[in-house]
Write a structure and sequence with these properties.
Layout lengths: L2 H27 L8 H19 L5 H37 L5 H32 L5 H70 L5 H20 L5 H96 L3 H30 L8 H29 L1 H19 L1
Helix pairs in contact: 1-2, 3-4, 4-5, 6-7, 7-8, 8-9
């Protein structure tokens, strides 16, 4: 039993005692008074008790309750204003993002900040409401029950807001993580494609180097060798029978291709040799006719005719020499049968012979040009100097070619190097 209940019981007992004393006074005056009947006494006690209880019952303070309700609404308004403010900032960010004035990363950071501040404002409002309700002095049981219900509702709202905030934060963070992962993946894919393109280019250049100066049949032979390596690698694993069978059939087809390519190359090389010889014959006939005409020029025009004829025969002779070199190169290339070393050697020899023929031709033209000037004149001496220079250069090239062909140059160079090395060791 609570103190309040005990107090009320004591007060009721005292009232009843006072009532009995009043009845005793009435009885002393008028023993037959109707107020002394049991029914009247019971009714009187009940009426007094009820009156006392009604008087002792507390009443709710309406002013305080109104102030409390206003205070709670104020907290709710403040939270709503904060949410509206950050929602508006988020809309502005969306606009700037679409306009290209805000980066995706900064937009994400801003959204995260806005959500956190909105959540904090809402939680602060709920905490303030709970504090106001729990500190309020409820005067009646009904008032206390009402406030208890409000407290439970606010606690429920607070828990729901907290859950929604963390759920949304997780979703937003995951979305950003996936976005960054997609960017990294795209960058990696682009780099891999670029690297693959470079590797393909490297492989193509390496294949060009490997097949450089090879005949078609030789290139086909390289392809066959590559397939043979693939087949050997696959043979060590089970289940590759069909793949190996396909490689065998491809090798067989390439071998047939190599045979016809070899025949075609032989025909082509033979045709080149024939064309070169045919052109040489034509140029030789032209050179012969030119020399005959030059003799006529000498008979008709004297020294000037001799000079003109000499220049003409120098040019025709040079053409014959160059075509003879070309014919020899065609024949050597055919005899090489696609051997890169032999082909390179033939090309080098042709280049050397062509240079020598060119220098000789220049010397012949300088010698013929002397005929345009009087002997011992400045022009004559100038042409004579040019002729001597070309003749000396021609002789040097001839000697170098002779030494290279005989092997004396290589032997002399080796002997010189050995001697210098011995000299340095001794010193």
């Amino acid at each position: 039993m609570t103190d309040a209940v005990r107090k009320q019981s004591a007060e009721a007992a005292k009232l009843n005692e006072d009532y009995r004393q009043n009845l005793a006074a009435i009885k002393a005056v008028d023993p037959a008074s109707p107020l002394l009947t049991p029914e009247a006494v019971a009714a009187g006690i009940a009426a007094r008790t009820k009156a006392h209880m009604e008087q002792a019952k507390p009443k709710a303070d309406q002013v305080e309750n109104t102030q409390l309700a206003d205070q709670i609404k104020q907290y709710e308004r403040e939270a709503a204003l904060a949410k509206a403010h950050y929602d508006e900032l988020a809309k502005l960010d969306d606009m700037y993002l679409r306009g290209g004035e805000l980066s995706v990363q900064q937009a994400y950071e801003n959204k995260r900040s806005y959500a956190t501040k909105t959540y904090e404002a809402q939680i602060d409002a709920y905490d303030l409401e709970l504090d106001a309700l729990t500190s309020h002095n409820s005067r009646t049981k009904g008032e206390a029950a009402k406030h208890e219900k409000q407290i439970n509702e606010i606690l429920g709202k607070r828990d729901a807001a907290e859950k929604a905030y963390f759920d949304e934060s997780f979703r937003r963070d995951e979305e950003e993580r996936l976005r960054q992962a997609a960017i990294a993946t795209a960058a990696s894919d682009a780099a891999n494609k670029e690297i693959a393109a470079i590797n393909a280019q490297v492989a193509a250049v390496e294949e060009q180097i490997r097949a450089y100066n090879l005949l078609p049949a030789q290139k086909t032979a390289l392809a066959v060798a590559d397939l043979q390596e693939q087949k050997a690698a696959l043979a060590s694993f089970e289940g590759n029978e069909k793949v190996i069978d396909g490689i065998n059939r491809k090798i067989e087809a390439l071998n047939r291709l190599s045979i016809v390519q070899g025949k075609a190359s032989a025909q082509e090389q033979g045709g080149d040799v024939a064309k070169a010889k045919e052109l040489l014959d034509i140029l030789t006939a032209v050179d012969t006719a030119t020399k005959s005409a030059a003799q006529g020029m000498t008979a008709s025009f004297g020294a000037v005719g001799t000079a003109i004829g000499g220049l003409t025969t120098a040019l025709s002779g040079y053409a014959v020499q160059q075509q003879a070199i070309a014919a020899q190169l065609a024949a050597s290339t055919k005899d090489a049968h696609g051997d890169p070393t032999k082909v390179a050697k033939a090309q080098a020899a042709a280049a050397q012979q062509g240079a020598q023929a060119q220098v000789k031709s220049y010397g012949d033209m300088a010698s013929a040009a002397k005929g345009f000037f009087k002997e011992n004149s400045a022009g004559y001496k100038a042409m004579e100097g040019v002729e001597k220079a070309y003749r000396a250069y021609e002789m040097a090239m001839a000697v170098q070619s002779m030494l290279a062909k005989s092997g004396l140059l290589t032997a002399f160079t080796g002997l010189f190097v050995t001697s210098k090395a011995a000299e340095m060791t001794a010193s």
